[in-house]
Design a protein that fits this description.
Blueprint lengths: L9 H10 L2 H6 L5 E3 L2 E4 L11 E4 L4 E4 L5 E2 L1 H8 L4 H12 L15 H4 L1 H22 L3 H10 L4 H6 L3 E3 L5 H6 L3 H9 L3 E3 L5 E3 L4 E7 L5 E8 L34 E3 L15 H7 L6 E4 L2 H9 L5 E3 L7 H10 L2 E7 L2 H14 L8 E7 L5 H18 L2 E2 H10 L7 H15 L6 H15 L22 H4 L6 H12 L21 H13 L5 H6 L5 H10 L8 H32 L5 H20 L1
Parallel strand pairs: 12-13, 12-14, 14-15
Antiparallel strand pairs: 1-2, 2-3, 3-4, 4-5, 6-9, 7-8, 9-10, 10-11, 15-16
Bound molecules: zinc ion.
The site of zinc ion has 8 residues, from loops.
């Protein structure tokens, strides 16, 4: 729990999630329309024209039938407002007029400094951002920065839109201009703006650099990227490669020594996580109402130069490889992501790493392609050379995911030989296994099968199955199959729809001897609901946050009965529970019987065995 020591008590979270209204929370951000018992809207997490996003006030739960996004009020704030878990709890508590109690550690939010800390950090970065932008306009040495930006073809409008600034030379600009109280210095250190030396004195991390503020999806500044100015008059970087990997690797003490990294990023801080953030995403969302696709490039200047050329959908990772988190975020906004890399060896390596990280999130409907620029060009230089139209045509022609996948694997192999083809299969299979189940995986496996058999397969020819793909959709029932067997799932669906049913479940010890997969979770949920009788679906699910059980329960919570009738729901629930009990008893009986045949039954077991025998037969006659 970052920023705050101490755990938030479960009872408080239960109470809070029970008390807030998810409809109100969502509606203030995404206007909802009432539809029967639920509310709907066009989904904020994927692009759509007809609403498939529903919010259930009963369950205190949202679900999108289009993209599968779902969660509680807490989850919604985390996804939509991009908050951490404690931040979401704090926000909900604020709306409910409650104060968050923190267990242990002794620090509670009763301490106003503590409570405000994260807001303060945003405010500090906001001030630093303002300061740098002001310095670009006013500082006597800013002309070098302005000249550089102009020479790179940047207009004042785009520079202002991206909030580009200037960190003047010197070691103590921030302290001198923002104040030097201990508290402030501490916050500047926490946000990565100052570096504390061994003798406890602090100095500016960013000196004599062009500053690119990095914003979160809400537009708040959470960190910076700083680019050194070209030394003297000669423009060394013209045509020179931008070392993508070096961007984040700048040494902490990196000043203007020879060899100082060209780009320097804020370090990881409570507000800034490189593996999650994308430079330019906020600006893209602000500039475009509908994002057609997103182009992932390597540097700040690439994003800004493309925006200048009218291509507003470029984003950059921040000196790290693209992560699954990045991709999930991108795919919420559009269905197509194009990676843009240098055509040289390093670029191809980076592209392959991106592909590997993409595999687990390649759900059907998502498209990933790879664009390789001519050797020595980056998006900034290339778009200037060929212009927007041609650049966008090249994006259109980017290499499909599967093509890059197979080309790259086949490249070093002799596909005319049996060995080469066998090697392709052994290398491709573990990778393909990472793809989520669906048409894409199926098609690529078939493609692999053809490569393995055929000797003269033309690698650029599109897979012949492509056109048939839609007919190959596995039936929905199979796709949604989960690892919980149907009976337990059936019961959980009804229980999550109507948590009060738990009160009809009776004594749970009747399931204690069963060995049905999924039974543990069901009993755990029933126990919780029998003790905490006021929990609603949302608050129940919150108790399983960040566990596999939790994500499983969330999926089940999206279930809707065909006819929402309480009496029949209760009957289905009770009948299914009784059948489950029967199953447990039978299992136990079979186990004891097996032991008995081996002559291994203790006296106690023997008694249980007889009792079970009696019970099972009695029930048999009853039904
Ligand atoms: Zn959706």
């Amino acid at each position: 729990m970052r920023n705050m020591s101490g755990r938030i008590p479960q009872s408080f979270i239960d109470d809070l999630v029970n008390r807030v209204d998810i409809v109100e929370i969502v509606d203030s951000r995404v206007p909802l329309k009432k539809a029967g018992r639920e509310y709907t809207a066009c989904c904020p997490f994927h692009n759509e024209k007809t609403p498939s996003f529903t919010v259930s006030p009963n369950k205190q739960f949202y679900h999108c039938f289009g993209c599968g996004a779902h969660g509680t009020a807490v989850g919604f704030l985390m996804e939509y407002d991009h908050m951490s878990f404690p931040e979401a709890i704090e926000e909900l508590a604020r709306q409910a007029g409650l104060e968050v109690p923190y267990e242990g550690g002794g620090r509670t939010t009763a301490d106003p400094d503590q409570q405000k800390q994260s807001q303060d950090l945003y405010a500090i970065l906001e001030r630093a951002d303002q300061f740098y932008q002001q310095q670009l306009r006013q500082h006597p040495q800013a002309q070098r920065a302005i000249d550089y930006l102009k020479q790179r073809g940047l207009s004042g409008q785009i520079a202002a839109e991206f909030g580009i600034g200037f960190a003047p030379p010197g070691w103590d600009n921030l302290i001198r201009n923002m104040g030097n109280s201990d508290a402030l210095q501490e916050q500047l250190v926490t946000t990565g703006m100052l570096i504390r030396k061994d003798d406890d004195r602090c100095y500016d991390r960013f000196r004599d650099r062009i500053m690119f503020p990095i914003r979160d999806p809400r537009g708040r500044c959470i960190g910076f990227g700083g680019r050194i100015l070209p030394d003297g008059g000669d423009n060394q970087e013209k045509g020179a490669k931008k070392p993508a990997a070096a961007q984040g690797r700048a040494s902490a003490a990196g000043g203007r020594k020879p060899g100082a990294a060209k780009y320097l990023n804020s370090p990881e801080t409570p507000l800034f996580h490189k593996g999650r953030e994308l430079y330019g995403l906020f600006e893209a969302r602000r500039a475009l109402r509908d994002i057609p696709r997103l182009l992932v490039v390597e540097g700040y200047m690439d994003v800004v130069a493309l925006a200048e050329a009218g291509i507003r959908y470029a984003v950059a990772t921040l000196g790290t490889a693209t992560t699954g988190d990045h991709l999930n975020r991108l795919f919420r906004l559009c269905n197509e992501v194009v990676f843009c890399f240098d055509g040289d060896r390093a670029g191809r390596e980076a592209a392959w790493r991106a592909l590997e990280n993409t595999l687990p999130v390649m759900q059907d409907g998502r498209q990933v392609r790879f664009m390789f620029l001519p050797d020595g060009e980056d998006p900034d230089t290339q778009v200037k050379k060929v212009g927007r139209a041609r650049f966008e045509t090249d994006i259109d022609a980017a290499m499909p995911f599967s093509t890059f996948f197979f080309e790259r694997l086949k490249e070093p192999l002799n596909m005319d030989s049996l060995e080469g083809r066998a090697q392709l299969v052994s290398q491709a299979n573990p990778l393909l296994a990472k793809l989520p189940d669906g048409v894409m995986k199926q098609t690529m496996k078939e493609q692999l099968g053809r490569f393995a058999r055929l000797q003269d397969q033309n690698p650029v020819r599109p897979a012949p199955t492509g056109a048939r793909a839609p007919h190959r959709y596995p039936p929905p029932a199979r796709r949604s199959r989960s690892n919980t067997p149907s009976r337990v799932r059936y019961i959980l669906q009804r229980l999550l729809h109507q948590p009060a049913l738990a009160q009809q479940a009776g004594d749970l010890s009747r399931f204690s001897k069963g060995d049905v997969p999924g039974l543990d979770l069901l009993v755990e949920v029933l126990e919780i609901l029998q003790i905490h009788t006021t929990l609603r679906t949302g608050s129940l699910i919150e108790r399983f946050r960040e566990s596999e059980k939790g994500s499983h329960l969330q999926k089940l919570a999206a279930w809707q009965p065909e006819v929402d009738d309480e009496a029949s729901l209760a009957e289905e629930f009770t009948t299914a529970l009784n059948k489950l009990e029967q199953m447990c008893l039978q299992q136990r009986y079979d186990a004891l019987l097996a032991q008995s045949n081996l002559g291994q039954l203790s006296q106690e077991d023997e008694a249980e065995y007889r009792e079970l025998f009696r019970k099972l037969n009695q029930d048999k006659y009853k039904h």
